[in-house]
Amino acid sequence: MSDFLPEQWRQNVAAVILDAADNVLLGTTSGKSPYWHFPQGGVGKDESLRDAVLREVWEEVGIPPEKCTILASYGGLRYTYRHKNKKSERWVGQEQTYFIIRCAGVQPVASVKAQSDEFAELRWVPWRQLTADMFVPFKREAIIPALEAFFPRGCTDLSDISSRLSPLRYVYAAANSLSQYPSADKSLFGGGKAEMVAQMADLARRINRAQRHTYTGRLMVLLVGLAGAGLTNALRHLARSMDPLHTHAVQPRSSCEVTLPAEGECTLLNVTPHAHFIAATSETEDADLQTVLAQEHKWKEQGVSVLKIFLHVSYAEHCKRAELPLSPKQWQVQLSRAETMLSASSSSAEPWYIIPSDCRWYRDYVVASLVAHVLENQA
């Protein structure tokens, strides 16, 4: 009797491999097949998605991990198996994360040697020529959104793909207003809340591995936002993704009570002078802003790196969530003070990130993604 469970999806990774000229590597399983495929495969137990995709690239097309640079990923995409697929007895289909990977020294095709019999033929295709009808029809429900994410209509080159499809896209520019950062944006993920479960588990693996083995800095993660942005819940969800032996998740009565992180540790904080500045009266604005800047300067002098995250929520969501919603006039005043604070305290070394927070699970995903990025790249 089958042990199939409804809504059980096989975790899978796929590699969109670019050469130096932005051609994409495709393979076909048979000389008679009109369809092409990206290298792809299942994720092993306790294997991270990134490790899995690099392994698949090596096993299927013979490109070693040291020649691969992961530029971006796009996850949460599903396609259902055809009934004749032998895997359909166990799974509904695949839940995929696509990675776009730059590979050095692998052009032309003659230099790519398959490590398995997965592909009968390989071909480099200019990225502008990729179309969904090149791929097997039943996979297109995942292929189409992946192609749209990596190669959107109107895209002229791929130079910005790393910043466009990573949490770095939410970095704050001092010349901008918060209205230029959509609070309902969900552009870094192709699925919904159900698909997010596996993604958050993978982020927890990455964060824990960095904290335990490679990260040696001292990191302060600040969560700031107006009422209703979900500061407490965001801190709680982030803490669940981090190694408890190297993390302090605190909600002090004041920033003065914060215990600074030691080497290799992180402190998560959502009560800061920044929040006080946003909520204070206009008569104390100058003094409150100086307190914000002085606190950040003090942390810097003490050797602490600060990851500054502003949880951006719409007024409509604020009214749904806040116990005592602000009037429209009060909201605009606090929003204006937030912009003043963001502009005054943002720098190239420690910028603010404006995270869309109308959707709670997307907020938590992006915050964890940003922390994983910082820990892995400051190791």
Describe what you observe in this structure.
With 379 residues, the chain is of the alpha/beta class. The chain has two domains: 9-164, Nucleoside Triphosphate Pyrophosphohydrolase (Alpha-Beta Complex); 168-377, Rossmann fold. The N and C termini lie far apart (49 Å). The strands form three sheets. Strands 8-9-7-10-11 form a five-stranded parallel β-sheet, with helices on both faces. Helix 6 runs antiparallel to helix 7 (285-301). It is elongated, with a radius of gyration of 23 Å. The longest helix is centred in the middle third of the chain and has 22 residues, at 193-214. The protein has helices at 49-61, 140-150, 161-164, 193-214, 231-240, 273-279, 285-301, 315-321, 328-345, 360-377, and strands spanning 9-18, 23-28, 40-42, 68-80, 93-103, 121-126, 218-225, 247-250, 265-269, 305-312, 352-356.
Topology summary:
Blueprint: E1 9-18, E2 23-28, E3 40-42, H1 49-61, E4 68-80, E5 93-103, E6 121-126, H2 140-150, H3 161-164, H4 193-214, E7 218-225, H5 231-240, E8 247-250, E9 265-269, H6 273-279, H7 285-301, E10 305-312, H8 315-321, H9 328-345, E11 352-356, H10 360-377
Parallel strand pairs: 1-5, 7-9, 7-10, 8-9, 10-11
Antiparallel strand pairs: 1-3, 2-6, 4-5
Helix pairs in contact: 4-10, 6-7, 6-9, 7-9
